[in-house]
């Protein structure tokens, strides 16, 4: 058990140190890592790894564990892990899971800002942009059917960022676009999450 981390990467890296220090494993050992998480979360993690390998969590995780003295293998088959069905089918729960799909586009924007992609951006953007468009359409339909006021106000701003950044001719404003997209997603994620008791207020 490792209880000091604040992220998945920290957890695995810290755990590798714990295992080596406990002498349950020797430095240089190889272990198989299996994740236990909500199905939508695992799906997003593996989608990003597949489409945006340069930005993927799993490659970074393997690298950091190796640096700590532990080699890890991770199956790319979600069913080889322990996906747990997301339990909230209320309107906020449906919107929450849909909104999470925009994470792939956010990770794409982060990669553009950091200039990590060696492939042409015209190639890299295709699938993340298609996911973003499809997700926004589904969100807009669900929001329209449910008359969800907060989402009605904020979805146009999310769509505007996607449309502006889908043009590859000029990325000079990528920092501001990513900051806005990230702020909107974080706010809406916290606002919609059915497991949060208190709703936070929109900034003025």
What does this structure look like?
This protein is mainly α. It is built from 9 helices and 4 strands. The protein has a two-stranded parallel sheet with strand order 1-3. A two-stranded parallel ribbon has the order 2-4. The C terminus is likely disordered.
Sum up the structure in keywords:
204 residues; mainly alpha; two-stranded parallel sheet; 9 helices; 4 strands; 60% helix; globular
Which secondary structure elements does this structure contain, and how are they paired or packed?
Layout (H helix, E strand, L loop, with lengths): L7 H15 L7 E3 L3 E3 H13 L5 H12 L2 E3 L8 E3 L6 H10 L2 H12 L6 H4 L1 H21 L2 H17 L8 H19 L12
Helix pairs in contact: 1-3, 4-7, 4-9, 5-9, 7-8, 8-9
Global structural class: mainly alpha
| Residues in helices, as a percent range | 55-70%
Q: What is the mean pLDDT?
A: 89
Shape: globular
Instruction: Compute the separation of the termini in Å.
Output: 42 Å
The main sheet comes to: 2 strands, parallel
Strand order of the largest sheet: 1-3
What are the low-pLDDT stretches, counting only 5+ consecutive residues below 50? 198-204
SSE succession: HEEHHEEHHHHHH
Strand percentage lies at: 5-15%
Q: How many helix segments?
A: 9
Computed Rg: 19 Å
Number of E strands: 4
